[in-house]
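In this section we walk through a basic example: taking a raw amino acid sequence and producing a predicted 3D structure, encoded as discrete structure tokens. The instruction is simple. Fold the sequence below.
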Amino acid sequence: MNLTIVKPLIVFMFIGLAVANIGIFISSMQLSDKITYYSRESKRLKEENQDLEQKIYEVNSLQKAASQAAELDFTKKAQPNYLNNLGVALK
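The resulting token sequence is shown next.
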């Protein structure tokens, strides 16, 4: 092979590899930014989920129900009245 053909071919290959390397580097930087964004978003959603779970537990708690019952002037009945009692039907 002629040396005049091989040298430009090798230089062209090195330039092509350098351009490919720069392209891969840029795409990896963009991918890194996306990973960082989704990591932060995942952390934020996890914290928001914990806050919402805490609010659900507070709403469903017996203490909350008792305080709302007191605010609405609900009282406890000592004995429930049943309609299927014979004593009630005879009165």
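Looking at the output, two observations stand out. The chain has three helices and no strands. The mean pLDDT is 85. In the next section we compare this with other chains.
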